């Protein structure tokens, strides 16, 4: 089968590789329709990633059609022919973190393999816990956003965003924009965005956010946020950029007793200095969110396919699998938002 094989930073090759073999009862074979380029894939392509040792196949935001199931799956009603969105990993539901209702931190996750390929094996565990039907063909592309939106659902629920909250989003890349739409859907009353890229800024403004527009004047984001919040600061701040500077600017934008959620991953070892005054006297809660649970993946998929969240505009480009390198170069340029790789649009 055709696959996009990652051989190291900057080196992606379209190759013919062995199609996956179903191993256990209940394993399924997915014929891939679309697979989204995630920030993690792009980071890996640009500078490598500790989680991926080349040569390997990347890609995890996948939708497609089930074309084979080994034996009779015990705990799944998914059948051959179904079009599905697949959570790239599922929790064990047995470890200490799963028992503490933090399934995204599970220590025994079951994973799918890389999905920038014509076929991918869905292990029986992922079929039963994390594979969900997509209601119709016309929802397939949107369903590709289930995984990134599920990460946002995780963050927004864990940070208790609700009606009347003023939310500040730092960084309006695909994740920041998904976060914006989700906060709107969940009832945030005012959303502020800071983003240096003009294209991304205009997308955020189109979506109803107030955007910080004084980049050239050297104005300070935190004083702008104070101006917009009666001098108080934002209730919830999501830092959707993986830099220390972005996190620091988040500290300047939050109100007393508010939440700063470090949502973008920073490189390991990034030092962060926090003035303990903001934790003690101001009671600011500093937290982070990573990943999702199957339930939240399903929530995201349902929101996308039922139309309660309008994020179609975030998908700006679509490339054929043969153009994978162009797709990754485009993603690296910052001139695109979400990019999908089309493997077989008619799978
Ligand atoms: Zn992703
Ligand atoms: Zn577990």
Brief digest:
The chain is built from 12 helices and 18 strands.
- Cα Rg: 20 Å
CATH homologous superfamily heading of the largest domain = Medium-chain alcohol dehydrogenases, catalytic domain
Name the CATH architecture of the largest domain: Alpha-Beta Complex
Molecules bound to protein: zinc ion
Largest sheet: 7 strands, mixed
SSE order, one letter for each helix or strand? EEEHEEEEHEEHEHHEHEHEHEHEHEHEHE
Give the termini separation. 14 Å
Number of separate domains: 2
Mean pLDDT over the full residue set: 94
Q: What is the CATH level 1 assignment of the largest domain?
A: Alpha Beta
The poorly predicted ranges are none
Number of helical segments? Answer: 12
Helix content: 25-40%
Structure description:
There is one protein chain. By secondary structure, the chain is α/β, with parallel strands linked by helices. The chain folds into 2 domains: 2-148 and 292-342, Quinone Oxidoreductase, Chain A, domain 1 (Alpha-Beta Complex); 160-288, NAD(P)-binding Rossmann-like Domain (Rossmann fold). Helix content is 30%, strand content 26%. The chain contains 12 helices and 18 strands. Strands 3, 5, 6, 9, 10, 17 and 18 form a 7-stranded mixed beta sheet that branches. The protein has a 6-stranded parallel beta sheet with strand order 13-12-11-14-15-16, sandwiched between helices. It is globular, with a radius of gyration of 20 Å. The two termini are 14 Å apart. The mean pLDDT is 94. The site of one zinc ion has 6 residues, from helix 5.
């Amino acid at each position: 089968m055709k696959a996009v094989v990652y051989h190291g930073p900057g080196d992606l090759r379209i190759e013919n590789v062995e199609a996956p073999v179903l191993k256990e009862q209940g394993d399924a074979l997915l014929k891939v329709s679309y697979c989204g380029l995630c920030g993690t894939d792009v980071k890996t392509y640009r500078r490598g990633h500790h989680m991926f040792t080349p040569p390997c196949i990347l890609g995890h935001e996948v939708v497609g059609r089930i074309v084979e199931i080994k034996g009779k799956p015990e705990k799944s009603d998914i059948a051959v022919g179904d079009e599905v969105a697949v959570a790239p990993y599922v929790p064990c539901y047995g470890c200490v973190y799963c028992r503490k209702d933090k399934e995204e931190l599970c220590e025994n996750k079951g994973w799918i393999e890389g999905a920038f390929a014509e076929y991918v094996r869905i292990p029986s565990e992922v079929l039963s816990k994390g594979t969900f039907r997509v209601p119709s063909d016309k929802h397939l592309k949107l369903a590709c956003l289930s995984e990134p939106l599920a990460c946002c659902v995780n963050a927004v629920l864990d940070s208790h965003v609700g009606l009347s909250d003023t939310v500040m989003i730092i960084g309006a890349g695909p994740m920041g924009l998904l976060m914006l739409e989700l906060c709107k859907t969940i009832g945030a009353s005012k959303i502020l965005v800071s983003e240096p890229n003009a294209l991304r800024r205009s997308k955020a403004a189109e979506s109803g956010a107030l955007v910080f527009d004084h980049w050239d004047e050297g104005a300070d984001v935190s004083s702008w946020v104070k101006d917009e919040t009666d001098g108080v600061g934002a209730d919830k701040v999501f830092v959707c950029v993986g830099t220390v500077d972005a996190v620091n600017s988040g500290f300047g934008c939050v109100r007393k007793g508010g939440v700063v959620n470090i949502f973008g991953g920073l490189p390991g070892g990034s030092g962060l200095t926090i003035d303990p005054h903001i934790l003690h006297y101001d009671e600011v809660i500093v937290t982070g969110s990573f990943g999702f649970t199957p339930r939240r993946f399903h929530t995201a998929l349902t929101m996308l396919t039922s139309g309660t969240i309008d994020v179609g505009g975030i998908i700006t480009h679509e490339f054929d699998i043969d153009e994978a390198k162009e797709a990754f170069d485009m993603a690296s340029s910052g001139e695109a938002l979400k990019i999908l790789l089309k493997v077989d649009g008619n799978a």
